[in-house]
Amino acid sequence: MLAQSAGPPIQPRILILACGALAREILAVLAADQLDHIELQCLPASLHNRPHEIPGQVRSALRQARGRYERVFVGYGDCGTGGQLDAVLAEEGAARLPGPHCYAFYSGAEQFAARGDQDMRTFYLTDFLVRQFDVLVIEGLGLDRHPELRDAYFQNYRTVAYLSQIEDPILLSDARHAADRLGLAFEHRHVGYGDLEAALAGL
Amino acid sequence: MAQDDIILADLDDAALVQQMHEDLYDGLKEEIEQGVMILLGRTWTPYKVLTEALVEGMRIVGEDFRDGILFVPEVLMSANAMKAGMKILRPLLVETGAPRVGKMVIGTVKGDIHDIGKNLVAMMLEGAGFEVVDLGINTDVDKFLKAIDEHQPDLLGMSALLTTTMPYMKVVIETLKEKGIRDKISVLVGGAPLNEEFARAIGADAYCRDAAVAVETAKDFIKRKHNQRSGADA
Ligand code: B12
Question: Domain coordinates of chain A in residue numbers?
C-alpha cells in the first residue's frame, strides 16, 4: 500500500539531452503537448561548429544523468559527427532525433529527402538561426571583421530558405533581411516542428 | 599607415621571410604580394619563394587551426593572402620548370557544396609541386571519370562535409573498380565528418585529417608508385 500514500501516480522521468539550438522549440512542444514528465538539459549550441566534440560531450552528460532518469533521449541529429554520435548512443543505450541535422527533421525526413537536388544551393535558416544570425553567422563566420570573405563562404549559394517553426512577422522580416545581407534570394517555408514533435510525443 | 610600420624592402632575406610568415598568419594579402616581389627581385627562384615563404607560412597556419588557436575565418584570410602570392608565382613556376611531383584530380562530391577544406588541400598540394585539377563542388561520378580519363592523374581526392554526402565516395570508388581503373590511382579522402575507419570501409587508400597530412600522404603515394615502377623495371 506504499504507492497510495505517495500521492499522484509516478510517471517515468525522462530527460532530453539536446543541442542548445533546440531548447526553445523543445520546451514549446513539451508545453503544448503537456509532456510534464520530460525534463530538458542542453549542451551549448556552439558545439555545432566543433562537431567532433559532440559525441564525447554527449557521452559524459549521459553518464552523469544515469540512474536519475528512467530514460534519456538525445536531441541531436548526426550533426556532422559522421556516425560517431550514433556509435556513442549505441554503447550508452540511448536514442536520438532522426536524420542528419535539424533542417532535415524540421522539414520532415521524407519531405527533406524529396527535395533532392533542388536545395543544393540553399542555405537554411530556422527560428533559432534567425534569432542568432548576427552571432552565429555574421560573427561566427567572421563576416563582421572580414566582409570580403562573403564569396569564400557563399559564392556557390543562390537562396536562403527560412524553415520557420512559428509564424512570427518579425522573425520573417529578420530572415528576409538576413538573406539580403548575404546577397541571396529569399524563400519562406513554414514547416513547424516537423519530426521533432512526433519524436517527443513518442517518448 | 602606422608609424612603426615595417618597410619590407629594408629587411634582409631571413627577416623578410619571417615577416612574411607573420603577414600570412595575419592574412595580409598586399604585404604578401609585396614580399613575393621583393624576393623575386633579389633573384630568389619562384620555387624557393613558394616553398620557403608561402608554403612554410601556411603550414604554421594549418597547425594552429588544427590546435584550435585559429578558426575558419582566419584560415580563409591566410589562404587568400597565399593565393595572391601564388598568382604572381604560378606563371613563373611554369617558365622556370619547377619540379612537378605528381598529379591529382580533386573535387567535393555530389550533393555537397562545402569547399573551403578542399580548396585548402588543392592549394597546399599545388604549393608542394603537384599539378591539381580542381573539379569544384557537387562533383558526380561521371565528372570524376571524365577528368581521370582526360588528365591521367596519380591521385584522386574527394571531399565531403555532410553526413549525407559521405557515402557517395563509395559510389565513385566502386565505379572505378567496375571500370578496371581503381588500381591505377590512389584515392585520398577528407572532410571533417570522415575518419580512418570510414575511409577503410569504402575502400579508399587513405583518409587525411588536414592539408598537411594530405600533402605528406600524396607525396608518399607518389614515392611508392615510383618504387613499384623501378622495382618492376629491375
Ligand atoms: C564553414 C561551414 C559552412 C559554410 C561553407 C562555406 C564553403 N564555401 O564551404 C556555410 C556557412 C556556407 C555552410 C553551409 C551549410 N552547412 Co556547413 N559547416 C561549416 C563548418 C562550420 C566548417 C567547415 C569548414 O569549412 N571547415 C574548415 C576547413 C579548412 O576544414 P575541413 O573542411 O574539415 O577541411 C580540412 C580537412 O577535413 C581535410 N580535407 C577536407 N577535404 C579534403 C579532401 C581531400 C582529398 C583530403 C585529402 C583532405 C580533405 O583538409 C582540410 C584542410 O585542413 C562545418 C562544421 C565543422 N567544423 O566542420 C559545418 C557543417 C559541415 N555544415 C553543416 C550544415 C548542416 C550546413 C548547412 C546545411 C547549414 C544551413 N544552415 O543550411 C549548409 C549546407 C547547405 C547545403 N545546401 O548543402 C553541418 C553538417 C551536418 C551533417 N549532418 O552533415 C556541419 C557539420 C555543422 C553542424 N554541426 O551542424 N557551412
Answer: 14-97, 109-190
